[in-house]
User: Fold these one by one.
Assistant:
Number 1:
Amino acid sequence: MHDVQFITLAPGHFHAALVHQQMYPGVAPRVHVYAPLGDDLLAHVHRILAFNTRPNQPTRWELEIHACPDFLPRLVSEKPGNAVVLAGRNRDKIDFILAALNAGFHVLADKPWIIRAEDQPKLESALALAEERGLVAFDMMTERHEITSILQKELIHDAAVFGTILPGTETEPGVYMESVHFIKKRVAGAPLRRPAWFFDTTQVGEGLADVGTHLVDLVHWTLFPTPDLDHRRDLRVLSARRWPTVISRTDFESVTGQTDFPDFLAPYLQADGLHFVCNTQVSYTLRGIHVTLEVRWDYESKVGGGDTHRAVYRGSRSRLEVRQGPEENYRPELYVVPNSAAEAAAVAAALKRRVSAWQADYPGVQCRDRSDGWQVLVPDVYRVGHEAHFAQVTRQFLGYLRQPGSLPKWERPLMLAKYLVTTEGVRRAETVARC
């Protein structure tokens, strides 16, 4: 018996396919796909085909394609399922989300839901509508399922290890986080072909508005056990700046397959190539805590590693860091660094107690001495990787769908706070750039 019937709406990003990396109990194998006929749809079909034909644990998805210009009104009229999956062009995503909720569908939508500050009222309407109608509208926050982020959060709430978060200053914030993504990379074992519209920030959003959503979400989710924030009162964006990554014609052709830049990218062309304005740094305060986030898109990793992440939280007893650089072989590792020699013995004893308690849920986790503190050693069994996090998010979504009212109440205020930071940060950076 299948109680969930997925519908994929306008898939334009590979995240739409990653939801279908595996089969789920109670979910119908037939998926209805509503989209305009074009390269985005064909790329999505090929990715699902690759999952269905892989040698190890192939999936059994069946796609019923509705390829037509009026795909959205047809979806609303025909209603062939009960849960809409959205991952594609970001500019119109909130309108698709509102249409799906108004039609009575649950929604599992990739980030970002909005990329412009003026769309914040639409986000508020969507979340209010979902709550009013008892629907699940869930943001694909995959990074919450990264094991080092989970353990870092637990240590931050262990006062004997971390103390309390330091408020910091704009130049030395209590929280610093950075994320570096690469335009040219591999996904599901194959080279990723980027659509040309990926380089149009009016469609995709700048770095902070897009992948920066994960960073803001992690900060708020990590610092507060129930992040019931008031986005009007608890947040203040202090400053922001932006800068481009320059893409040559050769590099553009390598990742898109197109030999020339399309006309809609003309405003971003200069003599040295396409100025892809995708990098953002923002500083803001969160209940008095200074936070600085930096999001960058580089063309390609020079050392063969994947996307990287760094997260630093400064406490009154120790500093907790997730690093993902050459020393870590480009996989995230968690470090505990005491603030002083006087704190070291007490922090060490508290960390050992925490590691011992972790054995119930994470057997095999250990800690290792370092010259500056300790590294938390995480067994490979817990390192499922970014792509596998989409299945974890999907199972979480299905759990909320099947247990009405189980979606935490704090998700709504967290969403409003998160997207206020990302969109206001971009707006502030744009204003600075024009001055």
Number 2:
Amino acid sequence: MTPPVLPATEPSSNVSRVAVSMLCLVAGAVALGVSPLFVRFADVGPLTSAFWRVMLALPALWLWTRIEVGGRRDGDAPPWTRATVLAGLFFAGDLVFWHLAIMHTTVANATFLATMAPVWVILASGLVIREAVPREAVSGLLLCLLGAALLIGFSYSYAPERLDGDGFGVITSMFFGAYVLAMRVARRSAPPGLLMFRSGLVTAAVLFVVAVVMEDKTLPSSWAGLASLLALALLAHSAGQGLLSFALGHLTAAFSSLVMFLEALTAAIAGWLVLSEALSAAQAFGGAAIVAGLWVARPRRARVSKR
């Protein structure tokens, strides 16, 4: 992916837009962080749940698009771009390999390796999307990595029979990192709802084929399973990914990608509150390190895109 040079962002005295974007980023991370709970309660296969997560979100995303377009005709909407299609493909890859990692290695291994996504974003931002990475983002990344190691890294275990699953976890992080970069580019020319709807069409099409080929059960057999899928669609995808998409229009890809660590923190807290999973002192310190890393990496100036 070699996109054209992006329009330069410019300093602005309007700090509120950046503040709102940061709040949206945090809210989106919380919504995404609780999604594993709903996957656990859905009575379909994990890849099928990923398909329904996106497919059932499309009507809500279409309504969001209608609100954005307003009274304009469809012909006045921004055209499809390569970055939008790539965002859909990359997100499909992220979900597929995430679930493959869960099925072939431990949840701790899969989660820890998936949190490497910000590493790829920071390494590729300058080269791929020509967006400078501030020194504070690198420092914040190091703190977040320390926090992730304390939060879930102690549960990581190596075993030769799980090597494939660990590899799937690394691939998951690469796909999510590529998704963040593609969505950051796409947000320079189109609003978030439209991008979420269009990229969702691509993601749903890919996941439908994968689910049909790899799993037998495609429909939930209980109301609880259906409710879990609806929660995945509305909370995790429409709200969580939607808020991330909005934030990517106003915050750098490097800082926005650090939301991955906040997802891990939210998942740990949700497991503690809902599933009575214990949290150690080291994990609590790890959560504090993640929060500190996000604080260190926060934008120092209101660098806001023209859209």
